[in-house]
Design brief:
alpha+beta; 6-stranded antiparallel β-sheet
């Protein structure tokens, strides 16, 4: 299984933020991740099974700066929309279909060995689009990114 690595020349990437950041700011992953202590949606379990199925050559989600290639997708992807920043990724960029993530989030499993849960997690890391997904948004991840400009304030 290989994560899809992207050439950046033809793509512009955007990152949503709760605070405005000036050009030149280096974005780094949130080491505390996106799982909150009041994990009412089961995000911790979803993130844990994704990490257990992550191929070693892929960037861990908790070590990623998340980006979109379409401003309109940031909110759908769970990002902040107070400030929309155009960013330039530093290093390699991986892309993953959120169709796999959504299916995994909605699927109920009782143990870590559940074949369907592991198949969905492996599908996410494949870099391929999920067949017949309701939403097949693509998230882009890099180990860091630099703010190029502020695009929008909401």
């Amino acid at each position: 299984m290989k994560a899809r690595l992207l050439r950046r020349a033809a793509k512009e990437f955007y990152h949503g933020s709760a605070i405005g950041l000036p050009a030149g700011t280096i974005l780094e992953p949130r080491k505390d991740g996106y799982v909150k202590s009041d994990d009412t949606y089961g995000i911790a379990a979803t993130e844990a099974i994704l990490e257990r199925n992550r191929p070693t050559h892929c960037i861990p989600r908790h070590d990623s700066v998340f980006m979109a290639d379409d401003i309109d997708n940031i909110e759908w992807m769970g990002g902040q929309t107070d400030f929309i920043l155009r960013v330039e990724p530093v290093g390699r960029v991986e892309s993953n279909s959120l169709g796999w993530y959504e299916a995994l989030e909605l699927y109920t499993w009782n143990d870590d060995g559940d074949p369907m849960a592991n198949w969905l997690a492996q599908g996410y890391w494949s870099g391929e689009m999920m067949p017949d997904a309701r939403y097949n948004l693509v998230e882009y991840r890099a180990e860091s990114a630099v703010v190029v400009s502020l695009v929008e304030t909401n």
